[in-house]
């Protein structure tokens, strides 16, 4: 067991974990943040995507101990003061989700993309989300959601 | 504008609304089964067969039992000794010798024999998942390996390995439909005959949430919380399997479901084992399937190998359709698996065409593969793939435009209601109108110029069409709906249909808003609790037309009941009471009472209406899907460059949801056409495509530029809403449209009719080889 401290959604957390614990297991288990999902065993599906120091990572491919001293943002940490993040809002507006299982990962990957590329093309969005699988939407409305979020975020800044 | 119009205009049927499901889901507040962790929860992990066929000689469990944290270990022999029963098959289907459908007993854990790789053999229950997995690593299952066969065509040959002694010929069930002699006579006199050998490959439904089961004992009752499309069916199967368990002892709960696609319609052996563990240990037990486990032992879809033939006259009119199909239903077929291939597919095989003569011979065979089951479309994709591939082959044979050949064979509107040779009656349809719109949307006439433009860039352009119909409904037409109005004015609607991501709660809420005339925020939809409501559940695109129709009826009955109660409360004649926007009023006065206040005045403190109603029959949605592809002759890579579809789906309640169903469904159909394949090794029976690294699901960088249109002018006559099921239409149309387009590209690149020999999935390798004349081994090495 290893003691570690980390920031999760802005809150300091001190936990003791078995060394083999994956970051996603820590989030879903001890921390009770079940919005981060597990859809595969081989880091293909991206349902477990979270931000680690602002970078999108698949939390099934990160050991919990690797997050020591670092900052993790999960889907639960996106909304501010009861206001949805523009990406969350855009997914609703564009019907970018059906069953919702891939959605937290899709949204976190999209948030990371828009931080780095505020005005991506449809091709760039598709490329950025290539590591996130969705079986319901066919990605059609997901790409639209990210485009809408980009426009709304640009307008909010202007 | 009065209040009534404004509310219906904003939220009612036919309007785009923000889904009521979404605020929770985009914030990670969904409640999928694995998100629920009761105190003291144990984890269950399965040890699975590593061989495809073998006799269990011994199981070494001492080390597992001694592993720290392990609470219990179960084997098949122990469960059989405890009196657990095998999952039964219904006697509806027969073998050729008249005996009932053959299927080996499907025990909760394998007993004596294992029959496919991944069959659950041992269950380990421990304080943590890590402990259970540690223990599982120590288990040694000694098996005496037996001969293996994963090939359905081979299964029928003499000397093939026998899966179960109850079927020495490996035939589980068989059906013949139509008039073989009359069809043969039609073929004999036909001006043209075309024949195709087609493999509709095995695929994995792959909802993003794998199976997930939590069982616990609550006040002496077994409570199952799982990811399922059919909670009542799960309850019934548990009662059948577990000795002494009565229906009233079981409660099945379903929270959010991370996709179903048919894969979550039945009970799985694993579900029963989890239930038994919780029931006997008196502690909560969770099994969360890994993706590997879903590939290994959740049902697969399709897997039908066919020789299909069409007889046509000189003018291109189809005289007869003859299909010989061999369906690989795997090791432990369910009744559903047989029904999909032997009955449901054949129901739609003649599709939108006026074909008088059929000769169908369908055989479901046993192999050492995982069982098949429902997967989006369930039989209809297989049937329509055959029909639409044949239509293009016939057009090529007659040197006729494929759309024109189809047009000559369409059922005409004046033939409605139309009964096809399988005895299925279509209530409505105007197929030529849909065809014309589809061709226009796809700019069918402008193809030559686009093909030339592609050729200038060194690409082979092809065009494919699928014009088709499908059946929806499960043929269960009754639904019970409850309406519960509380004093705060909230309207809670209960239904035994099941949400699985399709947005059915939003559609129901829109239907309720239309009747109750209140903002959508006042409507709450409750599903997934067998203590409250029971029914068939959600499958076969049935929920909106059956459940939604019943929501409408229940809401209307509630408003009517309220009107009587309001008349009493307001001491006015019933005829003078009018209802509007959540309030009853006495006409011409300012006397009135709000719906919530009226509910609060009832003796029970709320207004509860329990309503059961029926629709008259299934729905027959239909469409014309046109796809264009470009093939890179250097690599064989296929790119979809255009996809247009016009869909007759009757009236529409939630347009964005419908479009999402059709486009998302089409991407699944494209997945089967181009990249998805469950692949078992022919010699060992090992599953070679057991992860998303080896099984290619469509990704975000695939085609998303769909032009999708609806024709809502042809309402279904079998339900009062006039809606037709939309969940499977996209999937059914896309696969043949895409494959026809690739075949067209290859045929016009010099392969001619040889191009028709390509088999799905049309990966770059398959297409590259085809361009060089290599089509792989023949589908049928010997007569069938």
- Just name the CATH architecture of the largest domain in chain A: Roll
How confident overall, as mean pLDDT of chain B?
97
Query: SSE order of chain A, as H and E?
Result: EEHEEEHHHH
Mean pLDDT of chain A: 97
- By DSSP (H or I, 4+ residues per run), the number of helices of chain A equals 5
Provide the CATH superfamily of the largest domain in chain B. Answer: Aldehyde oxidase/xanthine dehydrogenase, molybdopterin binding domain
Q: How far apart lie the N and C ends of chain B? A: 69 Å
Query: How are strands sequenced across the largest beta sheet of chain B?
Result: 3-5-1-12-9-10-11
Provide the fold topology:
The complex is a heterodimer of chains A (158) and B (784).
Chain A: E1 2-8, E2 11-17, H1 23-28, E3 49-52, E4 55-58, E5 71-73, H2 86-93, H3 103-116, H4 122-128, H5 140-157
Parallel strand pairs in A: 1-5
Antiparallel strand pairs in A: 1-2, 3-4, 3-5
Helix pairs in contact in A: 2-5
Chain B: H1 3-11, H2 22-26, E1 42-48, E2 54-60, H3 62-66, E3 70-75, H4 76-81, E4 113-114, E5 120-126, H5 129-138, E6 140-145, H6 152-155, E7 171-178, H7 180-189, E8 192-203, E9 212-218, E10 221-226, H8 231-241, E11 250-253, H9 269-281, E12 285-288, H10 291-297, E13 301-312, E14 318-330, H11 335-347, E15 357-366, H12 380-398, H13 402-409, E16 418-419, E17 425-426, H14 431-441, H15 447-456, E18 460-469, E19 478-485, E20 491-495, H16 504-516, E21 523-526, H17 543-570, E22 577-580, E23 583-586, E24 592-594, H18 595-600, E25 607-614, E26 622-631, E27 638-648, H19 655-674, E28 706-711, H20 729-751, H21 764-771
Parallel strand pairs in B: 1-12, 10-11, 14-15, 20-21, 27-28
Antiparallel strand pairs in B: 1-5, 2-4, 2-6, 3-5, 7-15, 8-13, 9-10, 9-12, 13-14, 16-17, 18-26, 19-20, 19-25, 22-23, 23-24, 26-27
Helix pairs in contact in B: 11-12, 12-13, 12-20, 16-17, 19-20
């Amino acid at each position: 067991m290893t003691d570690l401290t980390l920031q999760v959604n802005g809150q300091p957390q001190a936990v003791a974990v078995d060394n083999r614990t994956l970051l996603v297991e820590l989030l879903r288990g001890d921390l009770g943040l079940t919005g981060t999902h597990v859809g595969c065993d081989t880091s293909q599906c991206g349902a477990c995507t979270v931000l680690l120091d602002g970078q999108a990572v698949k939390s099934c491919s990160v050991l919990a101990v690797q997050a020591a001293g670092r900052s993790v943002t999960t889907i639960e940490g996106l909304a501010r003061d009861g206001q949805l993040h523009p990406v969350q809002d855009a997914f609703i507006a564009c019907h970018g989700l059906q069953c919702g299982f891939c959605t937290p990962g899709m949204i976190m990957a999209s948030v990371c993309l828009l931080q780095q590329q505020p005005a991506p093309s449809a091709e760039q969005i598709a490329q950025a989300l290539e590591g996130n699988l969705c079986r319901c939407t066919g990605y059609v409305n997901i790409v639209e959601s990210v485009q809408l979020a980009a426009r709304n975020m640009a307008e909010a800044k202007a | 504008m009065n209040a009534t119009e404004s509310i219906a205009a904003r939220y009612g049927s036919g309007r785009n609304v923000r889904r009521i499901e979404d605020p929770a889901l985009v914030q990670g507040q969904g409640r999928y089964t694995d998100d629920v962790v009761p105190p003291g929860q144990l984890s269950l992990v399965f040890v699975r067969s590593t061989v495809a066929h073998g006799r269990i000689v011994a199981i070494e469990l001492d080390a597992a039992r001694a592993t720290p944290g392990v609470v219990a270990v179960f084997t098949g022999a122990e469960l059989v000794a405890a009196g657990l029963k095998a999952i039964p098959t219904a006697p509806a289907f027969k073998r050729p010798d008249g005996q009932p459908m053959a299927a080996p007993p499907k025990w909760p854990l394998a007993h004596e024999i294992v029959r496919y790789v991944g069959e659950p053999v041992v269950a380990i229950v421990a304080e943590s998942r890590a402990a259970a997995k540690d223990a599982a690593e120590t288990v040694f299952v000694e098996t005496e390996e037996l001969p293996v066969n994963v090939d359905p065509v081979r299964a029928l040959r003499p000397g093939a390995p026998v899966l179960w002694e109850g079927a020495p010929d490996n035939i589980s069930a068989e059906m013949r439909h139509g008039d073989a002699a009359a069809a043969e006579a039609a073929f004999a006199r036909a001006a043209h005959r075309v024949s195709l050998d087609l493999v509709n490959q095995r695929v994995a439904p792959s909802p993003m949430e794998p199976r997930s089961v939590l069982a616990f004992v609550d006040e002496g009752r077994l409570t199952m919380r799982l990811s399922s499309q059919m909670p009542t069916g799960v309850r019934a199967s548990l009662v059948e399997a577990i000795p002494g368990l009565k229906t009233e002892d079981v409660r099945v709960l379903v929270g959010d479901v991370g996709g179903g696609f048919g894969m979550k319609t039945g009970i799985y052996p694993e579900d029963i084992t989890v239930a038994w563990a919780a029931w006997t240990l008196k502690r909560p037990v969770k099994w969360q399937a890994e993706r590997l486990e879903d590939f290994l032992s959740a049902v697969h879809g399709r897997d039908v190998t066919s020789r299909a033939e069409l007889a046509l006259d000189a003018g291109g009119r189809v005289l007869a359709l003859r299909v010989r199909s061999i369906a690989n239903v795997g090791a432990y077929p369910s009744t559903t698996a047989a029904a999909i291939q032997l009955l449901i597919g054949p129901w739609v095989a003649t599709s939108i065409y006026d074909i008088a003569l059929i000769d169908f011979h369908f055989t479901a065979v046993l192999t050492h593969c995982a069982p098949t089951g429902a997967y989006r479309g369930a039989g209809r994709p297989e049937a329509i793939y055959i029909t639409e591939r044949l239509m293009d082959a016939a057009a090529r044979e007659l040197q006729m435009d494929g759309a024109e050949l189809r047009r000559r064979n369409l059922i005409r509107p004046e033939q409605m209601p139309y009964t096809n040779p399988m005895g299925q009656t279509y209530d409505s349809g105007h197929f030529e109108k849909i065809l014309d719109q589809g061709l226009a949307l796809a700019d069918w006439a402008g193809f030559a110029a686009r093909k030339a433009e592609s050729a200038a860039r060194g690409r082979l352009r092809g065009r494919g069409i699928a014009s088709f119909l499908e059946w929806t409904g499960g043929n269960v037409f009754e639904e019970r709906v409850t309406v519960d109005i509380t004093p705060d004015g909230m309207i809670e609607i209960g239904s035994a249909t099941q949400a699985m991501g399709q947005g059915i709660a939003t559609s129901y809420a829109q239907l309720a808003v239309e009747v109750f005339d209140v903002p959508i925020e006042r409507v709450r939809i409750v599903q997934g609790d067998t203590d409250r409501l029971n029914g068939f559940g959600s499958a076969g695109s049935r929920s909106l037309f059956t459940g939604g129709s019943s929501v409408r009826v229940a809401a209307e009955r509630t408003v009517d009941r309220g009107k009587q109660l309001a008349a009493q409360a307001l001491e006015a004649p019933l005829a003078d009471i009018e209802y509007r926007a959540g309030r009853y009023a006495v006409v011409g006065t300012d006397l009135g009472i709000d719906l919530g206040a009226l509910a609060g005045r009832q003796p029970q403190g709320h207004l509860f209406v329990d309503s059961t109603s029926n629709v008259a029959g299934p729905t027959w949605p239909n469409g014309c899907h046109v796809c264009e592809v470009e093939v890179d002759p250097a690599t064989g890579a296929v790119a979809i460059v255009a996809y247009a579809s016009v869909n007759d789906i009757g009236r529409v309640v939630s347009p964005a949801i419908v479009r999402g169903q059709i486009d998302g469904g089409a991407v699944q159909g494209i997945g089967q056409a181009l990249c998805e394949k469950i692949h078992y090794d022919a010699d060992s029976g090992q599953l070679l495509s057991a992860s998303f690294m080896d099984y290619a699901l469509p990704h975000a960088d695939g085609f998303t530029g769909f032009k999708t249109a609806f024709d809502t002018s042809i309402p279904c006559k079998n339900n009062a809403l006039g809606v037709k099921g939309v969940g499977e239409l996209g999937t059914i149309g896309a696969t043949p449209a895409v494959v026809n387009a690739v075949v067209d590209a290859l045929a016009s690149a010099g392969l001619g009719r040889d191009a028709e020999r390509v088999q799905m999935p049309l990966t770059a390798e398959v297409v590259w080889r085809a361009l060089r004349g290599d089509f792989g081994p023949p589908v049928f090495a010997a007569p069938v």
